[in-house]
Design brief:
The structure is a single chain. This protein has a domain at 35-46 and 96-220. Helix content is 32%, strand content 16%. The chain contains 7 helices and 7 strands; from the N terminus they run H-H-E-E-H-E-H-E-H-H-E-E-H-E. Strands 2-1-3-4-6-5-7 form a 7-stranded mixed β-sheet, sandwiched between helices.
Length: 225
């Protein structure tokens, strides 16, 4: 079965059994800075020396990052080490200044990667997460059934917004860049739903600025201290 036909069948099934909410956000990502620009700007401004990327694929981003020490993890291709993020964190004994997560785009794996990354983040370091702002419902459905797939990474951002020990933001750029610091939460999210996997796209659409703690690209420098 070819991929287009498989996607068609999955979408048909979803129309029948899935969430019925088809409004979309108005972000046009070509008008915003790329993840590579944001990562490099932070490295340069904060004088970071070490960089970890989870999910390198074709090295579209990893190959462009300039830093003293960089490590890339991917089970299939790209980066410097061929393994899953789970396996890497089991064996890792190094800390990093900046960790960029762009691995499997599911809530379950992303929250696991965030929690593991927090254990190996240097003081004054930062974690960035790609694909946190899906524009429409099709972008975030798991399993993937659409061209550009953000997955439900956004639910992991909502989850970390409820932590006391992390300070989490989302930058409006390149499909949404999550930004997490290991420090006191400055704007803790209070939410009734504790099973974050059950959050619906409708909840996200109607509350995304509150849920995601939205900031602009120009505001990134202000949240470092």
């Amino acid at each position: 079965m070819n991929q287009k036909y498989q996607f068609f069948l999955q979408r048909l099934f979803y129309y029948v059994y899935g969430e019925k909410f088809f409004k979309r956000l108005a972000y046009d990502w070509k008008n915003y800075p790329s993840r590579t620009q944001i990562i490099q700007k932070i490295i340069n401004q904060q004088k970071y020396k070490s960089y970890l990327e989870i999910g390198c694929d074709n090295d579209e981003n990893f190959s462009k990052i300039i830093v003293d020490k960089k490590t890339g993890i991917d089970p299939l291709k790209g980066g410097t080490l061929r393994m899953t993020s789970d396996k890497f964190f089991e064996k890792n004994n190094k800390n990093f200044d900046l960790i960029f997560l762009d691995g499997l785009h599911t809530y379950e794996q992303t929250i696991k990667d965030i929690d593991n990354s927090l254990r190996y983040l240097n003081i004054n370091g930062v974690i960035l997460i790609h694909d946190c702002l899906p524009i429409k419902i099709w972008n975030q459905i798991v399993p993937r059934m659409y061209g550009h797939w953000n997955g439900d990474v956004w639910k992991a951002i909502v989850h970390t917004r409820t932590y006391d020990h992390t300070d989490t933001y989302t930058c409006v750029a390149d499909h949404g860049i999550g930004i997490i610091f290991k420090r006191k939460n400055m704007n803790r999210l209070i939410i009734e739903e504790k099973d974050f996997k059950k959050l619906k796209f409708k909840h996200y659409y109607n509350n995304h600025k509150k849920f995601m703690n939205i900031i602009s690209y120009e505001e990134i420098e202000k949240i470092f201290y």
